[in-house]
C-alpha cells in the first residue's frame, strides 16, 4: 500500500515537471524584430533636477500647451528613494543613474560603505565612446559630479571634483564653476592642464561657434550660473547641440548627460516662474537632441529627473492666458515618483514602473554590455 502511494506521488511529480517545462517553452517570448531593437550607439540622457509632473505640466501650460517632451512615444515612472532616505538628494539620485546603486544621501558614485562605484561614463570611456556633460549649475555640482567623481560627501569637494574631471577622460564639459579650476588652494591652474590635454577652453558657448571638432571645456561663470529670471542668457539648447556636434563623429558612439540644473532651485525657492523658465529651456535642449535622433536611428534619448522639488502643484490658471496658480508643500524635495520619457533606438525598454537604479541597467542592456550583479 505504502509502495503504491510513493509510486503515485513519483508519477505526479514527473507529470508536474513535464507540464512546467512545457509551459515555460510555450511562453518563451518570440525573437524580437531587429528593426525595433536596434543596438544603441549613442545615448543622450537628460536629467531635469527637481522636475516632477507638475513642473512639466506648468511649463507646458505657460509654453502654449506644448512641450517637445510630449512627442516622446514611451513613458515610464521611477521610484527615487535612496539607501538612507525616502526622500533622496541629488547626489544619491544621480548615483543611482550613474552606477545602478542606491546609496546614502550626499554620496557621489560611492556605495553605502564609501567604496567607489564605476560610473556609466567611465564604462563608456573604456568602451571607446565619446562622453559629455552639459549643465546649468557648476560642473562640480552633485548631478554632473556623480558621473565622473567619487566622494563620500558632496560638500566642500569642488576642487577635488575639478581634479577628478581633468583625469576623467570626459570630452565635453559645459557649465559653471571656473573658479574651482583656477583659484585653487593648491595653486594649480587646471585650465592650463586641460589645454595641454588638447581641450578647447572657452568661457561662453558663442565662442564655440567656430569649433567643429575636438574636446571642449566651456566654463561660463566663476561659480553657479545665474537663473534665467536673473538674466542668464539661455545656453542649454545651443550647448546641447554643440556637444552632439563634437561627440557624434566618434566611431564607437557617445554618451551625453544634459542637466536642467536649476529647475530644482526654483522648487527650493517655491518660485513657479523660476521653475517654469528653467523647464522650458530644458525642453528646448531636448528639441536639439530630437533633431539629431531623427537623422540617426541608433540614438536613444531618455529624459527624467532625480526627484521632485517643492511638492509643487497647480491649483488653478488658464490655458488661454498661459498662466498657472501654484502651491507648494515644502521647500525641499519630495518622494513622489517621477516620469521617464524615451525616444529612439530601444526606447520601449523604458516603459513601466521601476527603481531609479534600473535606468543604469537598462542603459547597459541596450548598449549590449555585460550586466554586473546588482
Ligand atoms: Zn535640490
Explained architecture:
The protein starts with a helix and ends in a 7-residue tail after the last helix. It folds into 2 domains: 1-30; 38-367, 3-Layer(aba) Sandwich (Alkaline Phosphatase, subunit A), CATH 3.40.720. Helix 2 crosses helix 11 (272-295) and helix 3 packs parallel to helix 5 (142-148). The chain has 12 helices and 14 strands. It is of the alpha/beta class. The chain has helices spanning 2-27, 53-62, 90-99, 120-126, 142-148, 158-166, 179-182, 190-196, 236-247, 263-268, 272-295, 357-367; strands at residues 42-48, 74-79, 130-138, 172-176, 199-202, 215-219, 254-260, 299-304, 308-309, 313-318, 323-327, 333-334, 338-344, 352-355. 50% of the residues are buried. Strand 10 (313-318) and strand 11 form a beta hairpin. The protein has a 10-stranded mixed β-sheet with strand order 5-6-4-3-7-1-8-13-2-14, with helices on both faces. It has a two-stranded antiparallel sheet with strand order 9-12.
Structural key phrases:
single chain, alpha/beta, two-stranded antiparallel ribbon, 374 residues, binds zinc ion, Alkaline Phosphatase, subunit A, 12 helices, 2 domains
Amino acid at each position: 500500500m505504502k509502495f503504491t502511494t510513493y509510486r503515485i506521488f513519483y508519477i505526479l511529480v514527473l507529470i508536474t515537471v513535464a507540464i512546467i517545462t512545457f509551459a515555460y517553452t510555450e511562453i518563451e517570448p518570440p525573437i524580437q524584430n531587429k528593426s525595433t531593437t536596434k543596438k544603441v550607439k549613442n545615448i543622450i540622457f537628460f536629467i531635469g533636477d527637481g522636475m516632477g509632473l507638475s513642473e512639466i505640466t506648468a511649463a507646458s501650460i505657460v509654453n502654449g500647451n506644448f512641450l517637445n517632451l510630449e512627442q516622446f512615444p514611451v513613458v515610464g515612472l521611477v521610484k527615487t528613494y535612496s539607501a538612507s532616505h525616502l526622500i533622496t538628494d541629488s547626489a544619491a539620485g544621480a548615483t543611482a543613474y550613474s552606477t545602478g546603486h542606491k546609496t546614502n544621501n550626499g554620496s557621489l558614485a560611492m556605495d553605502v560603505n564609501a567604496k567607489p562605484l564605476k560610473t556609466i561614463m567611465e564604462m563608456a570611456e573604456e568602451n571607446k565612446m565619446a562622453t559629455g556633460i552639459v549643465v546649468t549649475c557648476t560642473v562640480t555640482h552633485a548631478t554632473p559630479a556623480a558621473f565622473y567623481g567619487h566622494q563620500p560627501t558632496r560638500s566642500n569637494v569642488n576642487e577635488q571634483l575639478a581634479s577628478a574631471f581633468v583625469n576623467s577622460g570626459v570630452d565635453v564639459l559645459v557649465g559653471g564653476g571656473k573658479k574651482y579650476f583656477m583659484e585653487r588652494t593648491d595653486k594649480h591652474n587646471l585650465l592650463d592642464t586641460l589645454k595641454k590635454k588638447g581641450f578647447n577652453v572657452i568661457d561662453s558657448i558663442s565662442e564655440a561657434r567656430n569649433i567643429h571638432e575636438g574636446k571642449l571645456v566651456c566654463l561660463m561663470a566663476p561659480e553657479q550660473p545665474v537663473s534665467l529670471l536673473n538674466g542668464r542668457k539661455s545656453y542649454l539648447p545651443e550647448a546641447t547641440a554643440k556637444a552632439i556636434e563634437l561627440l557624434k563623429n566618434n566611431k564607437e558612439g557617445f554618451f551625453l548627460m544634459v542637466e536642467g540644473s536649476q529647475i530644482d532651485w526654483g522648487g527650493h525657492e517655491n518660485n513657479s516662474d523660476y521653475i517654469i523658465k528653467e523647464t522650458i529651456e530644458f525642453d528646448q535642449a531636448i528639441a536639439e537632441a530630437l533633431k539629431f535622433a531623427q537623422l540617426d536611428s541608433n540614438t536613444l534619448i531618455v529624459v527624467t529627473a532625480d526627484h521632485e522639488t517643492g511638492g509643487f502643484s497647480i491649483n488653478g490658471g488658464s490655458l488661454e492666458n498661459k498662466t498657472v496658480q501654484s502651491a507648494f508643500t515644502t521647500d525641499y524635495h519630495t518622494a513622489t515618483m517621477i516620469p521617464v520619457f524615451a525616444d529612439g533606438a530601444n526606447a520601449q525598454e523604458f516603459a513601466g514602473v521601476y527603481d531609479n537604479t534600473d535606468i543604469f541597467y537598462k542603459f547597459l542592456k541596450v548598449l549590449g554590455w555585460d550586466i554586473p550583479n546588482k
